[in-house]
């Protein structure tokens, strides 16, 4: 869980990087920051289609409310006809960038 930080003005800027590949069929990934502890709606999200059997670098930026406790959730949806198939993710990194005061 990433705790809220009331000292940040504007939006909180988060960066998620990783590598992913799909073996046997395409997968749709949804990276979303959800409010803690229960989740519910997403504070911000990005969707990516992984359809290759080689490592694909992903680099995503999110802007969320800095006062909100939150966590990163990754949902994997296989595309039609993609079973059985496997999704692999490696080298996940989460970083907080300098505050964005543009709201």
Mean pLDDT: 90
Shape: elongated
How do the helices and strands follow one another from N- to C-terminus?
Answer: EEEEEE
Secondary structure: number of strands: 6
Low-confidence stretches: none
What does the largest sheet look like?
3 strands, antiparallel
- Please bin the fraction of helical residues: under 10%
Distance between the termini: 23 Å
Number of helical segments? 0
Radius of gyration: 15 Å
- Derived structural class: mainly beta
Strand content: over 45%
Strands side by side in the biggest sheet: 4-1-6
Description:
This protein has 103 residues and is an all-beta fold. It is 0% helix and 55% strand. It has no helices and 6 strands. It has strands spanning 12-23, 27-35, 44-50, 56-64, 70-78, 86-96. The two termini are 23 Å apart. The mean pLDDT is 90.
Topology:
Elements: E1 12-23, E2 27-35, E3 44-50, E4 56-64, E5 70-78, E6 86-96
Antiparallel strand pairs: 1-4, 1-6, 2-3, 2-5
Keyword list:
103 residues; mainly beta; three-stranded antiparallel beta sheet; 55% strand; elongated
In short:
The protein is mainly β and 103 residues long. The chain is built from no helices and 6 strands.
